[in-house]
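Example record for the data management plan.
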Amino acid sequence: MEILLNGNALDVEGINDSASVLELVETVEKALKGSGRTVVDIILDGTWYSPDNPGTLGDLKITSYKKIELGAATAKEMVLEGFKDAAEGLTYLENIAAEISSDLRLGRVKEAMTEYVKFVDAIEWLVAMFKNADRAFAANMAESSLEIEREAIMKRLAEQMAAIEIAQVQENWIEVADILEYEFSEIFTDVKTFVEKLLKA
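Corresponding structural encoding:
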């Protein structure tokens, strides 16, 4: 069995063959204590598992796998990686917003609302990224206008999501389409600008 941590071979002391993946992760976490890093990725023979699911990990035995890959990172590293991938996430958001807007204008409400669930999930990811940016890049943002921009974007996201909810209750689908097409288009442009500035800070 091969155990890797961030691509490097790992020799774990105190772990026997009957140990579960959860026990392995907990042992590695103890060794990482003080570094600021936590285990964020678990890949067992090529299949990814979430470290936030201890129940599942507790049922998996390390001897069942030939290769166990663990990825550890600090909060800042995780957020930075997330923002590096933001371009792809924003493209997805822009595309799905355009698709929902188009469906609503054509009267395909059911289809649009199915896609809207995905849009909400993606917006929640974006909001989480912006919240975490405060922790990970506090020093950088305090020395620039980035914190003001971050708060303004989060406020606009909340306002427009609330506006969509009101329009949905009123079944004003054209209003929902307008918000997605025009308001969110501007927000996504501002988010791209913010991310570019943040990664250069």
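Summary line stored alongside the record: The longest strand covers residues 38-44.
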